[in-house]
């Protein structure tokens, strides 16, 4: 049924000539600020140590959240009380308010991020200042960031799905950039489980099966582009390599004791996991079997993902713990200031390995199950992304 | 026989978890930084990693800046000090400086104090044992706020995902059909179930994390099994502490002597606190964790046991136990061992019920041999967590200052401070509340000179270098300290004169 609102929307949409609306750019800037702020913050903790609410890295993260929150709030309020029929036509209704779906989700994520602040402060007072990434308040913050990131993505996707021709191509480029940023965000939260010295333990494969196939499959299928997963994984790899090679160029001095390692520059995170290779396989499978039964396809994708991960990362682990990787290219010669020299060897030997081969197989079996389930959710998510209009 | 069996029934327990003393975690210290005499208070955080506050007062004018830097006393963590932080100089009192330091791990720290002023520069090292003491419960107001936000966010995400299913895939301008509205409601119900499940399991994970963190981080003194053998020998067997053994380099190192002894053992008959023993057990032959000591004559009763040790890292522990003892005939006191007898500590202590007469000079305790010990207490009531100088003077029976005071285990005096319920125990010296062995390690590694005691007479170091000097020293001894909480306290002050250890006993009330 074509309503007057639909006609109004159609008329307005034909007039667009710019690459993307301003709020899409805000979403990209906001999500990028959060993710790059997180990289900076983790490096800050490893190199300088002392942090307050007002460190530049924290401000960058907060800026990203606030930018997306304000942008979303403006979109919701202007759509609800404004007189733009096109905006109203492309909106959803929540609690009497109208606005793009992504705006509601991003706004929700921003409030979750704010909620995590007093929780995190109490956690610090109760259990000590930040010593780990995966803590309950950080998980709340992570959910908030996820809300902001996915909200920004949905804003972009709904716009992209309504666009055509060159406008769609332009938005597709921005879409892949945002997908790469969001994949980096996910892998940042998994960084405690994704190191070279863990690549011979099943935990590495279980952790990397949790969400990564979902993201790659969903983003690839949602784009409708043949090499969507590969492009997304490549952007993550580029971001990870940029921080690996770029951060050490900046001088830094630890400001907290005990200083066990004499750090003189910013310490980066580790060499990227090579998910670009399983991403290529995912794209090939999606292109070849994309129209098959989704559960069968999920099994195919999940099994292929874990198998390729094993084939790629088993030898990569061997290389990363070897002396050949202790250079600026692979970054295995970097240690945080709080790492005593007596613990350097942990970076040069495999940790978290199962005691027996049977236990390893059991762990890998679980990784297969997780990857299959993750792929199936990714297929559903990708289809939902393609259908999104508002 | 049954009395001996009863004596062997030992209780292990820990009072308020606190290293180096019991229930008294803050560091009070005095010493010389070059030409400047400083008094230092460091209030350690309840949780590590955390932020400690530092307050420093210079007795000498002309100090223009003080900077502090925390680092470990020994090991790899002592090699690379981070840049020092400047303390803030008080505008009202230019000789008072304050600031914060970050203590990122439990262990044996030192705070190096760097002073600049009109008389040049000076440096001082202050040992700071740091360990997490407790976790904080969530304040009710914060809990209510977070619960309200969680409820709001729960309903919000349910509604947003419902709207996504209902309208998200519609072309702009289209209204949702009834079946789309129905699917939207199903999604809302499903989202509600999933989110509630996440909250439920998240809460389980949070509780599990909190328990694990508390177990891993909160300090526990090593357990000690105390027993009495039929020949009157007390045996102390140190047990394993997972908190210590999980910190093999920064804490769990071998024991070192602290002012001449591997262990300082204090026995106090409770609840009356009328008998006090300061003994020095030795390691049993061939053992690394069993100490023995021949008890002197001890009357029967229930005794609180405090055992002080220091490790090679400089980290001190006070182990706590209690034991029922029968009458022990014992052996004569020898060496540095000492004892004291005092009237029972009165219940419901008040200023009017102090056990010793008060003169214009202060509180006087007449000792068994007729000598007198005077606490120059002053008129100001004592309050918790405030820096205070505890000043004592030994006099002869004619109220003249003693002229034959000697070092006692290398120091001008020792003081043991015990709260009436034994929830606080501190063994302090003229240098302050730090372990002397840790202080010597810190000063040796930092290259700072041995600090003077800052006593009023300032004629003799409060702490003597080993071997002990036999020079006569001032009869006045001062201890820098801060009572950690309000309550009734008994203070045992030990000063040696003419080859005999005199122990004055003073009671006081500390207000909040």
Brief overview:
The complex is a heterodimer of chains A (390) and B (512). Chain A has 390 residues and is an all-alpha fold.
Principal-axes shape call of chain B: elongated
Mean pLDDT of chain B: 86
Number of strands of chain A: 2
Largest sheet entry of chain A: 2 strands, antiparallel
Q: Calculate Rg of chain B over CA atoms.
A: 28 Å
Note the overall shape of chain A.
globular
Please report the two chains with the greatest interface, counting residues with C-beta closer than 8 angstroms to the partner's C-beta: A-B, 62 and 62 residues
Helix content of chain A: 55-70%
The first-to-last residue Cα distance of chain A is 17 Å
The N- to C-terminal Cα distance of chain B equals 47 Å
How would a crystallographer describe the biggest sheet of chain B?
Answer: 7 strands, antiparallel
Give the uncertain stretches of chain B in residue-range form.
1-16, 451-470
H/I helix tally of chain B = 5
Query: What is the number of strand segments of chain B?
Result: 30
Overall mean confidence score, pLDDT of chain A: 90
Count of individual helical segments of chain A = 13
Please provide the ordered H/E string of secondary-structure elements of chain A.
HHHHEEHHHHHHHHH
Q: Percent of residues of chain B in helical segments?
A: 10-25%
Task: Please tell me about this protein's structure.
The complex is a heterodimer of chains A (390) and B (512). Chain A is mostly helical. Chain A contains 13 helices and 2 strands. Chain A has helices at 4-14, 22-47, 56-81, 85-89, 101-127, 136-162, 165-189, 202-209, 212-223, 228-246, 276-289, 294-320, 357-387; strands spanning 92-94, 97-99. In chain A, a hairpin with a 2-residue loop joins strand 1 (92-94) and strand 2 (97-99). In chain A, helix 2 (22-47) runs antiparallel to helix 6, helix 8 (202-209) runs parallel beside helix 13 and helix 9 packs across helix 10. The longest helix of chain A has 31 residues, at 357-387. The radius of gyration of chain A is 22 Å and the shape is globular. The two termini of chain A are 17 Å apart. In chain B, the strands form 6 sheets. In chain B, strands 1, 13, 14, 15, 18, 19 and 20 form a 7-stranded antiparallel beta sheet that branches. In chain B, strands 23, 25, 26, 27, 29 and 30 form a 6-stranded mixed beta sheet that branches. In chain B, strands 2-3-4-8-7 form a 5-stranded antiparallel beta sheet, with no helix packed on it. In chain B, helix 2 runs antiparallel to helix 3 (178-217). Chain B is elongated. Chain B is α+β, with helices and mostly antiparallel strands.
